[in-house]
């Protein structure tokens, strides 16, 4: 554990030191978020590329940790680099959604080539057959769907100062605890390094933010969390294969799903932005950015805690817990009008 603490301290320090330099670089190359419509909450130009500091912190600390990198860790680093390249291009000159998706799918394919994929799932119905091994033609698309889905989910909630980074930090700590309880040392190391990289960036990103992490950072965090969860939770012999990470990534997943359902019900394009996300609705209720972020941090922490509980339950009970939580969330979302379109 002392080694874990050291890795987190190093990662936090690197991110804390690098972020101001990345901010100056972003201003120099004019990678700046200029508010152009009502959806933008900030009213003045803010430099982007904060995700580069998180990426470099994660990368440098990975090379500083004891022992050589494993094949899967190399795959994760290469995949993360592809995501960062795509994010940088998008932050500097903007790219079309299909081009962004191409980078995400490419990164997911790289993971699969380096044997990071969903290959086994738990069976909630048969006690004499706890696990089901997936054939490659099922394993590959499920893995790609999971990676791309979580990558975009984190990106979509990046609408308030410190929100996406803070939620990602809570999710990372949750997966770290789950990995430690399951004896997944490699996944624990990855999450503690990522947690430190996010923690070092947060002081600059919390309201009032002096720098945004941009698509570079939001996609990177989603990609890394989705990837590490494959190693720390989904592959766990004691945890339900789907319930744990879905609960751990609660807000990004549910907010994204509700947005897709809302746009479909109202005949709007799935990719069309609106002001229907949870953070927008809380702001419209009169809360300020700090209050919104704290509320969403608390919700994330509660869902993360439930995911840790689910991990220690039997498979069937985990299924019931996940179903119950989803039903409660959907009911609350319906009552609060989350499926009604808002420009």
TrEMBL record:
<feature type="transmembrane region" description="Helical">
    <location>
        <begin position="163"/>
        <end position="181"/>
    </location>
</feature>
<feature type="transmembrane region" description="Helical">
    <location>
        <begin position="136"/>
        <end position="156"/>
    </location>
</feature>
<feature type="transmembrane region" description="Helical">
    <location>
        <begin position="319"/>
        <end position="338"/>
    </location>
</feature>
<keyword id="KW-0812">Transmembrane</keyword>
<keyword id="KW-1133">Transmembrane helix</keyword>
<feature type="transmembrane region" description="Helical">
    <location>
        <begin position="187"/>
        <end position="206"/>
    </location>
</feature>
<dbReference type="InterPro" id="IPR018480">
    <property type="entry name" value="PNAcMuramoyl-5peptid_Trfase_CS"/>
</dbReference>
<feature type="transmembrane region" description="Helical">
    <location>
        <begin position="240"/>
        <end position="261"/>
    </location>
</feature>
<keyword id="KW-0472">Membrane</keyword>
<feature type="transmembrane region" description="Helical">
    <location>
        <begin position="70"/>
        <end position="89"/>
    </location>
</feature>
<keyword id="KW-0808">Transferase</keyword>
<dbReference type="Pfam" id="PF00953">
    <property type="entry name" value="Glycos_transf_4"/>
</dbReference>
<dbReference type="InterPro" id="IPR000715">
    <property type="entry name" value="Glycosyl_transferase_4"/>
</dbReference>
<feature type="transmembrane region" description="Helical">
    <location>
        <begin position="218"/>
        <end position="234"/>
    </location>
</feature>
<keyword id="KW-1003">Cell membrane</keyword>
<protein>
    <submittedName>
        <fullName>MraY family glycosyltransferase</fullName>
    </submittedName>
</protein>
<feature type="transmembrane region" description="Helical">
    <location>
        <begin position="292"/>
        <end position="313"/>
    </location>
</feature>
<feature type="transmembrane region" description="Helical">
    <location>
        <begin position="46"/>
        <end position="64"/>
    </location>
</feature>
<feature type="transmembrane region" description="Helical">
    <location>
        <begin position="101"/>
        <end position="121"/>
    </location>
</feature>
<feature type="transmembrane region" description="Helical">
    <location>
        <begin position="6"/>
        <end position="26"/>
    </location>
</feature>
């Amino acid at each position: 554990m002392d080694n874990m603490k050291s890795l987190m301290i190093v990662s936090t320090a690197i991110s804390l030191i690098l972020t101001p330099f990345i901010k100056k670089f972003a201003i120099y190359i004019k990678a700046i978020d200029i508010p152009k419509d009502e959806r933008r909450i900030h009213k003045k130009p803010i430099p982007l590329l904060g995700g580069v500091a998180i990426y470099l912190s994660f990368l440098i600390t990975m090379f500083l940790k004891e022992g050589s990198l494993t094949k899967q860790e190399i795959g994760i680093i290469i995949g993360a680099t592809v995501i960062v390249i795509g994010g940088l291009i998008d932050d500097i000159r903007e790219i079309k959604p299909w081009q962004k998706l191409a980078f995400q799918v490419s990164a997911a394919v790289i993971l699969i080539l380096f044997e990071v994929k969903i290959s086994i799932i738990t069976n909630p119905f048969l006690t004499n057959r706890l696990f089901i091994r997936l054939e490659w033609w099922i394993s590959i698309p499920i893995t790609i769907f999971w990676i791309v889905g979580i990558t975009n989910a984190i990106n979509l909630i990046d609408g308030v100062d410190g929100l996406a980074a803070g939620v990602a930090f809570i999710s990372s700590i949750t997966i770290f605890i789950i990995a430690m309880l399951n004896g997944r040392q490699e996944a624990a190391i990855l999450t503690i390094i990522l947690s430190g990289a996010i923690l070092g960036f947060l002081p600059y990103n919390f309201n009032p933010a002096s720098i945004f992490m941009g698509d570079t950072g939001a996609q990177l965090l989603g990609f890394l969390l989705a990837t590490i969860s494959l190693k720390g939770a989904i592959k766990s012999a004691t945890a339900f294969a789907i319930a744990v990470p879905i609960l751990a990534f609660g807000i990004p997943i549910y907010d994204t799903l509700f947005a897709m359902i809302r746009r479909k019900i109202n005949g709007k394009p799935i990719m069309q932005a609106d002001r229907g996300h949870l953070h927008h609705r809380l702001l419209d209720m009169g809360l300020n950015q700090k209050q919104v972020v704290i509320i969403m941090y608390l919700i994330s922490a509660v869902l993360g805690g439930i995911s840790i509980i689910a991990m220690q339950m039997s498979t069937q009970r985990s299924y019931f817990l996940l179903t119950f939580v989803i039903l409660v969330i959907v009911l609350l979302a319906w009552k609060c009008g989350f499926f009604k379109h808002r420009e």
